[in-house]
Automatic annotation (TrEMBL):
Organism the protein comes from: Paenibacillus terricola
Domain DUF4179 per the UniProt entry, residue ranges: 67-155
Stated name of the protein: DUF4179 domain-containing protein
Tree of life domain: Bacteria
Keywords: Membrane, Transmembrane, Transmembrane helix
Entries under InterPro entries matching the protein: DUF4179 (IPR025436)
Chain segments annotated as transmembrane: 67-86
């Protein structure tokens, strides 16, 4: 079981595996951290990266065992808190004495640029629950047809959460909310701010919702870790469940094309299946098919699949959440020559202005050494780049 799945099992219990994907910005920071670790371990060998959702695996040795423990601890810390705040504490100092909007602090670019946010004054409180010495407050919320999103703070009733402590509340949709929202993809992230945890939770939905509804969320526990003893996290139980009234309007639409957006190269194929947009985000449904033997050899060669979305000016659109699901067309062993691996990708970027053409590139990523230093090498899959007209 991977370290990420272990955390999910301990914190999430029997909830769906897709309930807590890793935000892509966090995944990239994990990548950077692992590259640094590889650089520190120039004498270590056989570094294996199974995929973007898998933690680093290493052979057992004195140095590599130590690095493995360090890598796992760092991965958990990055999963548990806001990467950019952890690496830029001066950002926190510059925003004191209080936050006016958590969306404005750690929200993704699409929300910051396109949603009216409070810029002065104290945070509103939409819901508040106290239990077992901790207070959960919900501050902001919206629905725009593509996502239901809210911000929160989690703090002690007495005193502050110490600096260097990482907190992950366990937000679970109540049965009524699951029925209301239908199939969802959830992404959440947060960071310690001035003695309390603050964060953003968002559910991307696939169905039309009423303009006003009540979102019931259960919070039966939270995970906590400290920098003094990283990786030895604890689970604390309680009940911080809440019911949140939400108002919004469905501003989402699906982009239409005259013909399917599909590219083929030998036995490889890539397709932009669907593109949905709202005021705050664009949701991309992608599908890649490659020979299963190629997928298996990628693991042996320390490669994994990645996807880059670029605007007309050559700027990469910053992902704000990605989940992947892969399956094999033939699970027999040994692998048959015509067996394929199919990966379905759901990724989110800021919204895209109409009339532009976006480039979507599937690629492999590999750890390489340049001038004695390790770094990630990106290689586009030949012949599979797709130009996407957005109208």
């Amino acid at each position: 079981m991977s370290f990420e799945n272990l955390i999910r099992k301990e914190l999430r219990g029997t909830t769906e595996e897709r309930d807590l994907p890793i935000p892509d910005v966090v995944r990239r920071r994990i990548d950077e951290t692992l590259v640094e670790l590889v650089g520190d371990a120039s004498t270590a060998d056989d570094i294996v990266q199974d995929g973007p959702e898998q933690p680093l695996r290493r052979r057992a040795s004195h140095s590599t065992h130590r690095l493995k423990r360090l890598a796992l601890a760092i991965v958990f810390l990055l999963l548990s808190t806001s990467v950019w705040i952890a690496s830029n504490p001066q950002t926190v100092e510059s925003m004191k004495p209080y936050l006016s909007s958590i969306f404005g602090w750690i929200g993704d670019k699409g929300v910051k640029d396109n949603l009216p946010l409070q810029t002065t004054g104290e945070l509103p409180i939409l819901a508040e629950v106290k239990n077992n010495g901790y207070i959960l407050r919900i501050h902001e919320a919206f629905y725009d047809g593509l996502q239901v999103s809210f911000t929160y703070t989690f703090r002690k009733e007495q005193g502050d959460i110490p600096s260097g402590t990482y907190v992950m509340p366990d937000f679970q949709l109540a049965p009524s909310a699951k029925k209301l929202l239908g199939s969802t993809n959830k992404f959440d992230h947060g960071g310690l701010y001035d003695g309390y945890e603050a964060g953003v939770v968002k559910y991307f939905v696939q169905k039309k919702l009423p303009d006003s509804f009540t979102l019931e969320v259960n919070v039966p526990k939270f995970g906590i870790d400290t920098m003094d003893n990283p990786g030895n996290y604890t689970i604390r139980k309680g009940d911080w469940s809440f019911a949140l009234p939400i108002k919004g309007e469905d501003h989402s639409h699906t982009v239409q094309w005259d013909k399917p957006l599909r590219a083929e190269q030998e036995k490889n194929s890539f397709e932009v299946v669907k593109l949905r947009m709202s005021d705050t985000a664009a949701e991309w449904h992608l599908r890649l098919q490659i020979p299963l033997r190629m997928r298996e050899s990628m693991s042996d060669e320390k490669q994994y699949l990645s996807y880059k979305i670029i605007d007309e000016d050559g700027n990469m659109l910053e992902p704000s959440g990605e989940s992947t699901k892969g399956h094999n067309t033939d699970n027999t062993y040994p692998t048959t020559a015509d067996a394929a691996y199919i990966e379905d990708v759901l990724t989110h970027t800021p919204p895209i202005r109409s009339g532009t053409i976006i480039t979507v590139i599937p690629m492999t990523r590999t750890i390489t050494t340049v001038d004695g230093k390790p770094e990630w090498k990106e290689t586009p899959l030949e012949g599979l780049t797709i130009k996407v007209p957005v109208e």
